[in-house]
Amino acid sequence: MSRMLPLAFLLAWLALPGLVLAGDTEFGRLDRNKDGKVSKQEFMRWYPVTVWKRVDGAGKGYVTETEWVPVRESVAKYKREKARDARVTN
After folding, report:
1. pLDDT 10s digits, 3-19
2. What is the pLDDT of residues 47-59, one digit of tens each?
């Protein structure tokens, strides 16, 4: 058993970069053609244009996976606002 422990740590350490590189699951869901970018058309299948305007501040027409972290925060803000508005109207 004690011989297996270092091997287990080594395997876990080797697997870690793969988990990090796997990326955000929502980004993967939005990137329908798997080109590493979420286009406005792909994004708007799930969210309205008002959110896209916050997300694509540079006006490029797409968001890359490396840009996704701040985008994810904008999307989370939209979801919170939408949930709050739903509670207010009910």
Report:
1. 654 545 444 544 444 33
2. 888 888 888 888 9
Kindly state whether residue 57 falls inside one of the protein's structural domains. yes
The CATH number linked to 50 is 1.10.238
Looking at the domain assignment, is residue 76 inside a domain?
yes
Asked if 30 contacts 38 with a C-beta cutoff of 8 angstroms, the reply is yes
pLDDT at 2: 57
Q: Is residue 5, in this structure, part of any structural domain at all?
A: no
Number of structural domains the chain divides into = 1
Nearest to 31 by CA among 45, 52, 48, 18: 45
Cα(59)–Cα(65) distance, integer angstroms: 16
Beta bridge partners of 63: 38
Using an 8 Å Cβ cutoff, are 66 and 23 in contact?
no
Of 11 and 84, the one with more pLDDT: 84
